[in-house]
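User: My collaborator sent over this chain with a note saying "see what the structure looks like." That's all I know about it. Can you take a look?
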Amino acid sequence: MQQTIRYGSEEIHYQVTFLTRKTSKIVIHIHPDGRVQVDAPEDADLQQIKQAVLKRARWLSLNLFRIREARSEVLPRQYISGESHFYLGKRYPLKIVALANNHPPTVKLLRGQLHVATADRSSEKVRQLLKDWYASHARQVFHRRLNALVPSVLWLNGESLTIKLLTMKKQWGSCSPQGHILLNPHLIKAPTECIDYVIIHELCHLKEHNHSPEFYRLLSLQMPGWKQIKIKLDGMAELLLNY
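Assistant: Without extra context I'll predict from the sequence alone. Here is the result:
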């Protein structure tokens, strides 16, 4: 539910999500893309929520200004040391290490950094090495999460499923009526809960092939907190797909 407050000459828009789990607190989040999410108890009224947001209006205004400033300076990736890259929801600084020509290149997480060791340190080469590394880890992690989630999905009856990777500009995943699940390899940059959400979303499409009320009933049954996770993933999309 979209709502708006005014702080001086500024309008601050926020999305209200009513939580079904027991909670008495109204919690305000600012996502990386500048969207404001307010999680509220299911019995809270909009005026009560608005007052809570108004109390944090100065804090919201300052942080939204910082986000706008930062996003105005977003540049295409250069694939140089010091540049940050995401993996499973965390940022890792990139460190490019020179290798002799007779040594094969490697990519690994090492001491809190994403190490790329290569003789060819051009941006094109580093980009390709990272792309391959992400794809390799995506296959492993996606299949591991799929195997962990499938047993709780009643309509699958223990059916064996596989995941294929497909880079998509606007989607995190898709599913055909034949049961072919495609996931965007860039999803490996998101937190595990977001990966689980996308997989469950596609598994629900095996039962309901459109976004009908029954589809959302199934999705809520399998993942009661999916709305908050979707908002989180949507908020990170611009950063995760910046490559």
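A starting point for your reply to your collaborator: Residues 123-149 form the longest helix (27 residues).
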